[in-house]
Prior knowledge:
Layout: E1 3-4, E2 9-10, H1 26-40, H2 45-60, H3 62-67, H4 77-80, H5 83-101, H6 108-120, H7 130-146, H8 153-198, H9 203-206, H10 208-211, H11 227-232, H12 249-263, H13 268-283, H14 285-290, H15 305-327, H16 334-351, H17 358-373, H18 380-406
Antiparallel strand pairs: 1-2
Helix pairs in contact: 1-8, 2-5, 2-7, 6-8, 8-16, 12-18, 13-15, 13-17, 16-18, 17-18
Amino acid sequence: MSSLSPTTYVPPQSPYQKVSCDDIDFSVACTVMESWDLVTAIPNWERVTGEIFLRRLFETSPQLQQIWGFGTGPITESIAKSDKFIHKGATLLSAVDKAVAFLGPNLQPLEEELFALGRRHIHMGAEPEFWPLVGDALFHTLRMGLGKGQYTEFVESSWKIIYDFMSYWMIEGLLAEKKDRWQAAQVVQAAQRRRSSNYEAPPAMQDISRRSSCSSYSTTSSSVYSEQELEDGGDVNIYERVPAEAIDYRTVQLVLDSWDAVTSVPNWQSVAGTIVLRELFELAPEIKTAWGFPVDFDPDNLEDHANHNRFLNKGLGFMNGVNKAVQFMGPDLEPLEMELQDLGRIHYLHMAALPQYWPPMGVALLHTLEEVLGQQKMTREVERAWRTVYSFMAYWMIEGLLAEKRGE
Length: 408
């Protein structure tokens, strides 16, 4: 288990050692893939093997049964046939299926996939000590699914190598996520201490509701939420959800076309990134310090090499984030919603972001678009389209941030 203090982070210990790629030779990989093909050939394999898997897991680990919301009693037939139970078993074995599909001469893509999957397991309340329990259930499922004739000693030893490899990288991802959250908590706590002791909202933030009415869907401190709630970064989304019908074909096309014009500018990321951060830091100096820049940082001071380079990289990252979101736009906005929520989570973990940062970021983005496009291309219709889309983006990013803050 982890040991946390205001200044020290002691990570949990992994029960697995790093598996050498030399241990995963051709025969091991082929044996695992061929035996898994036999498992997936079972009619309705996800449901059948998923039930075997979960029954075994909950039998050996009542703790996981309770954590995953299946109570503390025996798994009855009605529970085993429930959609929730079937879905959980299918989800876990689908992850194994995906990992097996990545097996090949180059294991780096699988390492990266497992690391990312391990990070996401924090939302399931996962701990390193769960992996041996899951491994026992998986091997039991393989024995039952393959039968004695096909579940040989070599099959078992091959699967052990692969499972140890998978577990190591997933736990590495989980531990990295735990450390990131601890570090983010320290930043947030420090920011809260600064605000409680000497924080005073600057005039730019006090006036932000006037300048940042990014659409009729945005909510400011003058309406629903108090100034104190916004200042403290309370657990509220300061934007209302933008109805899907508000983002029609015309709105999407205007945003895409104008963004194409922005990205056609030579060195557009550096140009736009510099403009957006200049405006943002002028509007909200506390964002500048929250992002690690000195209070007196001057973007024009080229002699301050370290901070100047960080400034350029931060601006580039800002514009790349917008670029990625725009690329997700289309008839189906659900993938974009999911991407934005993930981005909001990252903003909370790595930048200690607060909901009140989004209005000044919206103002800075619109200012940048006008500067880069010029008034001829940045028409009122284009501006309205961007205001609508930005409110959509801000809402879903803040939803992700708040979910991460609540530990969901």
